[in-house]
Amino acid sequence: MQQEQLVNEIARLVAEQLKGMDLYNPNDRIPIGVSARHVHLTREDVEILFGKGYQLHKKKELMGGQYAAQECVTLIGTKLRAIENVRVLGPERSRSQVEISKTDAIKLGVNAPVRLSGDLDGSAPIALAGPQGVVYLKEGCIIAKRHIHMSPADAKRFGVEDKQVVKVRFESGRGGTFEDVPIRVDDSFSLEMHIDTDEANGLGITKDMGILIK
């Protein structure tokens, strides 16, 4: 076999081996944000929990115009077990929402589904207690689905689009790959993947960078 034929045959065999494998650019790294349990509240529920006319006090600016408020509430599940000091995030929303981890759900006795933020129809019930009152949500408690925030410029650089689903690999900690990771693109977003505390602890993730796999 001539040298050129040999090179072509090797290239063909390598290409066959690579079919179906996860290929990625080692420079396609995504910063990670670990989200702890938190709640979003409507104006009505803010007033029930904290008093008539009460306004949330901004503690820390977050992505997309959101902020961590100084205020916290207590979550009460169906087993009447409670988790205290759960941070409220502002600004106020049209529907109140509680985001917890699977570990939290087990402790509270809440059958919370894994959902993206805002997807609340048919989600789990839960009660919230504040200094001035208690709110019972017939639905609104979810386990936040991992996802990636990107600006349009980020999406263009990575060659992805809004709602596209990708994988993200981690090489530090215990190592591993998260599958089924949707991308959310908006002008107000900066590049960051959001996972919860259970996911971070499972792979030993602290302030790591994930590798995007298309």
TrEMBL record:
Pfam families given for it?
A: PTAC
Keyword Transferase in record:
yes
Does Metal-binding appear among the keywords?
A: yes
Functional summary from the UniProt entry: Involved in 1,2-propanediol (1,2-PD) degradation by catalyzing the conversion of propanoyl-CoA to propanoyl-phosphate.
Q: What is this protein called?
A: Phosphate propanoyltransferase
Please list the cofactors this protein needs: Zn(2+)
**Reactions catalysed, as given in the entry:** propanoyl-CoA + phosphate = propanoyl phosphate + CoA
Which family does the entry's similarity section mention? Belongs to the PduL family.
Give coiled-coil spans as residue ranges: none
InterPro entries given in the database record: PTAC
Tell me the keywords, alphabetical order: Acyltransferase, Metal-binding, Transferase, Zinc
**Enzyme class per UniProt:** transferase
E.C. code: 2.3.1.222
Per its record, what are the GO molecular function terms?
acyltransferase activity, transferring groups other than amino-acyl groups; metal ion binding
